[in-house]
Amino acid sequence: MSIFEGRGSRFYYVAAFLTLAAWGSYGVFVRWTGLEGQEQYLVLWRTLIGLVPIVLAIILSGRLHELKVRGHYLLLAISGLTVGVQSYSSTKAINLLPVSDALFIIYLAPVLVAVFAPVVLKEKLERSTIVALSIALGGLAVISFAGRGDSGNALNLAGVGFAVLSAFSYAALILVVKILRNSLPPMAVYFYQSVVVVAIMLPFTGFKVPHLTGREWVSLLLLGLFFTAFLGIVYVTIVKRVKAQHMGVLSYIDPVSATLFAWALLGETPGWQNFVGGALIIAAGMIVLFIGAEPEVPDEPHA
Q: Is residue 302 domain-resident?
C-alpha cells in the first residue's frame, strides 16, 4: 500500500508542485560534480546509483511480480529512451547556450503538452490551463530575456538544437508516463526507464568510471539517490493523478526554484526581473492548484 492512497486530488497537485520545486536544486549539484562536457557520465551514473535503492525496495517489498509488464515493453522502451534523450539534451543545451536562452526553449515543453494532451490523452484543454500557461510563459520570458548578454556562451545552432530536442522529449515524457501509469505501478515504470537509460549511455562512456573528487562523488550520489530515485518515484506516482496539461504548467516552478537555489548555494544574485517573473509563474501554479485540481478522486489499486 502506498502512502499516497486515499488522498484527494489536490494533495497530488501540491505534491507535484513541491516535487518540481525541489528539482530546481538539480543544477547546483550538477555544477558540483565537475562533469561539464561529460554529460553522458552524469546521466549514466546518477541513473545507476538511483536504480540500486529501487531494486532493493522491489525485492524487499515482495513486488517482483509487478515487473511482469507483458504488452508494455515497447512503450516502456520508448519511455526510457525519452528520459535518456531529455536528460542528455537539456544538460548539453545549458552548457552550449546562455542559461536563460536554454531554459526558455526547453520550457516550451508545457506548451507542447497542452497542445498534444487533447489528442493523445483525450484531455479537454481547459480555459484555466490556457490562462495559467500564458502567465507562466510570460514569467519565464521576463526571467530569460532579462538574463541575455550575461553569459560568455554565444548562441549556436547546436545548442538551440539540443534545447529544442529537450523540449520535445520533455513533453513526450509527460505524455508517455501518463499513458503507462494507467495500467502499470510506478516501480515498474521507473525500473524499466532506468534500465533503458543505462543501456543507452554505457557505450557512450566507454564503460569507464569518471575521475572525481570526494565532494564530486557526494554530489553525484545525491543526484542519484535523491533526484533520480526518490523524486523520480514520486513524480511517476503523482503523474497519474494530475492532468498532463496541469503538470506542464506546474513544471514552470522548476526554473523559479533553480534561481533561488543558485542564489542561496552558488552566490548567483538574481535581478528584479527574476522576482517579477517568478511571481508570475507562482501565480500560474496557484491557478492550477486551486482551479484545476478536482476536490476528490476514488482510490486506485496501484499508487
A: no
Residue 4 in domain: no
pLDDT in tens, 18-57: 999 999 888 889 889 988 889 899 999 999 999 999 999 9
Contacts of 88 by beta carbon, 8 Å cutoff, 6+ apart: 39, 40, 43, 201
Rounded to whole angstroms, how far apart are CA atoms 161 and 156? Answer: 9
Segment 84-95, tens digit of pLDDT: 999 899 888 877
Domain with 42 in it? 9-292
Question: Counting Cβ atoms within 10 Å, is residue 254 exposed (0-12), middle (13-18) or buried (19+)?
Answer: buried
* Structure-block grid coordinates of residue 235: 513524480
